Fold CoA-disulfide reductase.
Amino acid sequence: MSDKIVIVGGVGGGSTVTSQIRRMDGDAEIILFDKGNYIGFSNCGMPYYIGGVVEKRDKLLVSTEKFIDKFGADVRTSSEVVAINRKDKKITYEDSSGKHEESYDKLIYSPGASAVIPDVKGINKEHTFTLRTISDMDEIQHYIDEYQPKTCAIVGAGFIGMEMVENLSRIGIDCTIVDRSKQVMKLVDGDIASVIHEHLEKKGVNILLEDGVASFSNNGSTLNLNSGKSIQADMTIMATGVKPNTVITTAAGLETGETGALKVNEFMQTNDPDIYALGDVVETEDFLTRNPRHVALAWPAHRQAYIIANHLQGGKVAYNGTLGSAIFKVFDLDVAATGLNRAALQNLGIPFKEASHDALSHAGYYPGADKIRIKVLFDDTDGTIYGTQCVGESGVDKRVAVISTAMKASMTVADLAQLELAYAPPYSSPKDPVNILGYKAAGMLTK
């Protein structure tokens, strides 16, 4: 007899694990709870809906009815799981009719993470927003439609900050970015960040670094900064990070790790073997160092869903760590990175060298060639690749994808020079920038 599987949370993690389980087990009873109104939606597409690039809201949503028809799951939206009773193997959930219980044989926990909202004096929530859910997106869109703001302060220069500044600027809103760091986008090193910074300024974005919001005044329309400066803004986007949703798992005695996310083993099991977890709520190992790491990205969640479904069927496919491969767009620039950056390596006390190369995205004589900058960080003894970063207007994604693949295959910087990559003038050069970077780095290895 198949297990009764209860899944907490939809979107990328819960919806994907549902589909993976059903493909492997046609008889399992699957009940999926989500506190929102939608079983799944594209988090990554929300800034582009606000900016008008994605014209139809429905394009971001997964139809609950079609999902149920396809995967045969009992889907309960607008139902929030509020407690886990491990002893009796039951969860408690709340919906419009009150509190209820549901038993389980196996529980899969995938509630994601929540946007961090700093406790700042004077904040006015009527025109201060985060962007994490569809309801967040709808609130921002409604405010823009209703009040037609002309200025926006974006607090935080990470993924959401970068994507929102582009899309708000697209619809005519002047933006100011405020961040406590010395650079925009801590994902990359300073030399790559400086390219982003310069590009933002060319696009008319005001950037205030090494500063933060001390308080709000004037009904929340004035941001008073730690430096003593003030910003006037019709609306504010708080893009200061996320925190894993671990409140009910902590209350149930499930272990959290060093990063504050839920601790799991290589099969995505918590310290209770009948409870699995995945996605933005979990802490996994870094692929290279095996240190704990919390990475809130889509690819790990999808891979982890397969790991869980396989393990439920008696398989032993293990999750082998996270590189953190990521890419984002900011105006005309593409920026991508994978592995560890300079700051992470220094914090871990890992000696490294770095090589960089300024190139063109394809053959210079073929129209449309764009400048790109690519760099690699590596061990100067054995050539182990620790990380790579690339910025430019085209051809960025494939270069980082190639090196990410090389890292998963435990290839060295010297191996990059040997990669036989497809060439034609519209796409590359006879020696791809990845090859040339490999030659440069290999020449820096200790003999």
About this structure: The mean pLDDT is 95.
